[in-house]
Each structure stands twice: as structure tokens, then as C-alpha cells.
Amino acid sequence: MSATFWIILTGAVATHLTRVGGHLVISRFETIHPRVEAGLNAVPAAVLTTLVAPELLHAGPAEWAALIVTVLVSLRGGLMAMFLAGAAVLILARQFVG
Amino acid sequence: MAAEAISEGRTGSDFWDGVRLSMPVVVASAPFAILFGAIAVDNGFSVLEAFLMSAMIYGGASQMVGIELFGQHVAPWLIVLSIFAVNFRHVLYSAGIGRRIAHWPVLQQAAGYFILTDPQFAIAEARAEAGRPVGFVWYLGLGLPVYVFWVLESGLGAVFGKMIPDTHALGIDFLLPIYFLGLVLGFRKRPLWAPVVAASAVASIIAYRTVGSPWHVSIGALAGVLLAVILPPHHSGVGKRP
Q1: What ipTM does this complex have?
Q2: Any idea where the domains of chain B sit in the sequence?
Q3: At residue B151, does pLDDT exceed 90?
């Protein structure tokens, strides 16, 4: 087996440990403290935000326009509408401002 | 017989319900799968290895980081550690989603955790929050198309990578932030949403500037989660279950 294969295999094991690990830790407790539950409820917003926020540091006019339109569409539309509107604005704006 | 037919129909529609929700994810991830395959081959992977990495790790950002370091001839253990660091956020997803799927049979749970990605978690959480059951069939309908397309498109990118046109003009590098912003906004009715988003945003930007990537993800996420833990429970809406 090649070195590449072993990198892929151990990388996969490490990845899937993270995917099951949180559950294995939490499930050892009989009851979940309300504060822990509050923390778990905050997970989606907390993690997903970190995938967006640093992008603002190098966002230009096209990127800002796309994000603002995404927020505006979110007031009315669903996820697909948000994404398509944001992507359309981004691609359009980049033809002009690069 | 009639009851059987009805329950079978329900199961089928649950599956297609999931498939319908998977479509934006398939569209948003397609460019990255193709790009990953192309970069992988460019950095010395064979087509089969690119395909295998997508099939076994199934985590876009970590695959990109891994392949980048591989191309720079970084020590293998450091590549694996970096993949682990990029994927560390899944520990939080796993703890969160475990509450929704703990009643599934063990093998179904194993499959469920195997395909636990950012959108998979976010969409399943949103469903649980709406008071709807997170069943295995629905979850599979959501995750399976994303997985199959991800793996196939990685292979396509590896074979035809040289033919990719100007990715900047197509906006490919910024499609995921738009998509993730959409997911964040989908949770805006949750208690503490605004303070959590603010804490995570500020902490991740500071960590990005100081500690560096990929640790800004874990640090920023922990800041938001800790804020929710520290604030008195009556702010977080826990306890007044519907």
C-alpha cells in the first residue's frame, strides 16, 4: 500500500472520530444539564458563523453585494432562493468589478 | 395491508423530502468536488486516490487542506493532524445531532455519523427544531445524493481537471460562504441567535488573524457555544419545551 493510501485512511479515521466523538462523550451522561443543552442548541449558529465571518476580511464589492442580497432574500425566501440569489449577484458583479 | 401501504408511502415521501432538501447542497458543493479532483491530480494524487479520499473522508475543506500540504511534501502525520484540525468542529455537530438520532439502530447511527457534514447537520437540526422527527430514511434522502455526487464529481474533476475555466469569474471561491450564510440565517429564530452569531464572528475573526486557520473555526465556535452556556438558562429558552 502506498503512503498516499495510508494518509487517506488515517485521515478518514481521524475525521470519523470527530463525527462520532461528540455523541460518545455526551451519551455517557444520563441527563443533560440545561446549560449544556443551551450550548448544544447554539452549535449550528456558532460553527457555521465561523465559516463565513473571516471571509469578510477579504470581501470586495461583489462579495458584499452577494452577502447583502442573501440576507435580504432570507427575510422572505428559503435556503435555495437565498443561495441562488446570492450566487447570481456574485457572478454578475464579478463580471464588472472582478 | 392498507396500513402497510400507507406507511410505505410515508417512508417513500420522507426519502424524497430529504432528496428535495439535498438539491441546494448538491449544487453548492459540485464546483468544490470538481475543483478538489483537479487539484488532487495536480498535486500528485492518482485519479483513484482522489476518488478514495472523497469517498472515505467526505469533508471538502479538510480534503483541500490535506491535498495542499501533500503537494508541499509535508510530513504525513502533519497532514493527518491538519485534516483532524479542520474537521474538529464535527465534535460539536455530533454532540448536537446525537440527541435527535440516539433512538436509531446502531448501524443506522453509524451511517448517520459517517455522512455528518455541515449542511447535513444544519438541515437535520432545523427539522428537529420545527418539531418534526429526524428519521433515518429522511436523513438518508438528504445525505445520500450529496455523498454520491461528491464522490463522482471528485473523480470527474480528477480526470477532466485541466478543462476548468476561470473559476474566479464563476464565483466558485465564494459560493460556500454564501451558502453557509444562508444556513446561519435559517436559525435566526432560535433563542440567543444574535449574541451567539456575534460572539462567534468576532472570536473567529480575531483567531483567524492571530492563531490562524483552521483553528479559528473551533475557537470561534467555542466562543459562541460558551456564551450560550454562561448566560442564565431562562435566556436560552431551554426548559420551556413545546
Answers
A1: 0.89
A2: 2-183, 190-242
A3: yes
